[in-house]
């Protein structure tokens, strides 16, 4: 059985690839103030495209105070009675540094061995453009979409979505929908058809320690004054015990152990530990008494993402550093309140700050709770059926260790659930040099999106009623 | 009683200051390959000056293999029967970074409030040029020097003097002398006339930890893989206990506690702890059971001088770093063998490397033993008398916490002792931004050097015989 919409979409595969290349070329690194122009370039590319496709209501959304990187909104609401989906993607990307670790330029999409390399190719520019291309195929061939669609393309996902709660709050009526379908989130593995039904939350902040008014000569003063690097090493090493357990009082409050049902479902998931670790060049390491999947999906973390101080350049400089710095993030699981969990870590750090050092906690970012979509949600059922229809395999339901701030925030703000339907894959080195997207994600993704949109078009708004909880 | 040589020297004070400015302008940062031109510029300035003053035998000294930054040698040997002094200084300086922490340009000598600011002004370009100016005043006024002089101006002091043993070994006959008089080393305090009779040794190396083949996403993998920053924090914090004691097995082997005589002499030294710490913006911190002076002069250290890994730039990047790095130095005291002490630290680090991490130890540098000049040494006696004559105060004998690699190395290589006679002061922020030299050091230093050279001119080579031990 051929599908004229899919046929049309597949004829446009080359155009889709060049569209991804054009969007990757916009250096939309939200964390880097020097690349503000790249953020604006990405927005203009997307807005022009949505205009060309015939969307209405195209606008930029910010919190009421106008702060932050605006999200792009557009809508196509011509399927009366059918559900309304809020389709999510993000146009911002991770910093590409270190640039010299890339085998091809970070912002020039480069095809090698069936892979498309470039910053944002996988997270989330490629998957977002697959979704847009699937929607446009309906508009091109049928002149309308099978479901009502609202698009929300965010610009702060990689910096913890600080403005998203404000955007959702200020534009709750505009964004009202039956469910969210996310083009972000990532498939777990290339070798397994799966649906990701939950994600960890996150919180983060920076710390600085000061031990003196200036750097001091390590000969002249060494042994008689505190060293900020010693203090930082001691402070950071106090977060875990020698075996990798988090030893922060109160941090694990509310975290439940997996139920026998969850434990059974997880044990049934095909998982080759050796194959998982080999490409990472590392070994299993983590909280004793838990499996790798437990550690990734059901257990929270406190991680140091950056740490620096003193002389970090070439050669020797015999200083006692008077300041040291670190960046921390926590990954949170269901049961943890992000604010309380973060405050537990901060209280631990204050209590453990070594004598002679002053602690400053700053740059708090990205407070997001963990999230799980209800097992029987109609959009999840449709997504599962669409994947089975287009791949021939029944998708396994899995969780992800990473964070989609949107999921928890949208549930709080709009009272609806989110199904993740991205065609990136978790091994694609997003957040690292040489990020890539498998080229096969383009036709696979188009087929699945088109099938899913048709299925949801046959559902009714009322099917979603039991899952709409209203705003918090 | 006027001294025509001193009068002449003091008339040249402005020229001395402009000579210091010219040498500071040469960016002779030996640790920075990008500033190799600055090293050569400094050498050319000094060589031209020595030629103009009439020295003979001007040459560049390297180890037999020609490696490293050459030292400059010159001699003036026209005082038969008088002792021969090997006068030491160094023309290389510490890196000036961070440049934005300087109140005036690092390489432009700038006078403010009686101080001369600039990289190398205090360590060691200013004090070295004071010595050269004192010698030139004798040559100008009397046509000869009162003692036989050999000059050795090193270019690797700030990088641990890696070539110095080879230079001493290859040119032992050329450098043969009765004692070394060093224009490096620093006065302890501006408010106390003192002679520094001992220095700590040093050793240093870098370490790198690797935990994976690449940086990994902290959400996607967090909790199930090792984090190089956690491993580094744990490893570095294992070097000391929570109270600041070094807990490295074997490191303290051979270290003697101060004798009652030494303890008594140290207790008699006027030392205002509050006044010592206040300008540093820090508090006393170190090994329990020892005073600040004990900690600085009689106890060894293991210090981290730099530590880095992961995302250290602006904003957030949620990576698990796969590598972390640190730079370490040890300060050593009499009784410690530098190689054995360093190897004890390395063995500790290997033993304590956390599971999941690979340790690499590299960039070993600057193995120097601690040193103390014998109490009754004739050059020390002359130096003490010169300071008393020119200041009216009897100099207190003190030690220094920092390292002069020359002292131990020259004792091993040439069998002679070193007396430090620098007119820098230890609070002058060498090895930090805003290094300065007190302008009063110029006339004070000229007076003391001229007085000392006259006194040694009245001594005989045979007075030094008991202290010449021969080459090791």
From TrEMBL, chains A, B:
Record bears the keyword Hydrolase: yes
UniProt KW keywords: Hydrolase, Metal-binding, Protease
Residue ranges annotated for the Peptidase M20 dimerisation domain, each copy included: 197-354
InterPro entries attached to this UniProt entry: Cyt/Met_Dipeptidase (IPR051458), Peptidase_M20 (IPR002933), Peptidase_M20_dimer (IPR011650)
GO BP, sorted A to Z: proteolysis
GO MF annotation: an example: metal ion binding
PANTHER family attached to this UniProt entry: BETA-ALA-HIS DIPEPTIDASE (PTHR43270), SUCCINYL-DIAMINOPIMELATE DESUCCINYLASE (PTHR43270:SF12)
The name this protein goes by in its record: M20/M25/M40 family metallo-hydrolase
Species this protein is from: Pseudooceanicola pacificus
